[in-house]
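Protocol step 4 of 5: obtain the predicted structure for the target chain.
Materials: sequence only (see below). No template structures provided, no constraints applied. The aim of this step is simply to have a reference model before the mutagenesis design in step 5. Sequence pasted as it appears in the construct record:
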Amino acid sequence: MWDYINKVFDGYPAEMRVVQKMIKIGISVKILYDEPKLFCDAIEIKPNSIARAFNVDRRVIVNMVQKIINDNELFDFFSNLEPISNFEHSGSKIGFGVIEIIPVDAARPGIIAGVMNILAEAGISVRQVVTDDPDLIDNPRAIIVTTNTVTGDILNRIKKIEGVKAVLLL
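Step 4 output (structure tokens):
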């Protein structure tokens, strides 16, 4: 899909930036009353609001949405996007542990599995795992939210996993 998205939005860098952000946060494109609309779950978002938030002209949003609704493959993809909650910034406020994993290569298999094994051995439950798509984000990372805070010895064990560049406690 990424190759196709890159092809469709090649030569339109502002539209591509908006598309990437929409995918990251789950903004969908749907048809409502025969008109294309942008949604975050069931909440309609006006093109002006998106344009302001992403620092682009409103016409960028309108043109991008037209490309999406006029392309069956893109429309099928974008009409099914959904937002998710992300406890990266709020998890520690309610007693969860929050760690950030920075990989050497995010496409390398086994990094998350290695982290999960270490956490399971320590008896720590995982509430949430959010990973960046390496095709979408320049410096991808993983955020892991746990039921308890993670100790320094566990962080050190995670740092030793092959493919892990750094581990941060948030």
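Step 4 remarks: Strands lie at 27-32, 35-40, 43-45, 97-103, 126-131, 142-146, 164-169. The mean pLDDT is 94.
Proceed to step 5.
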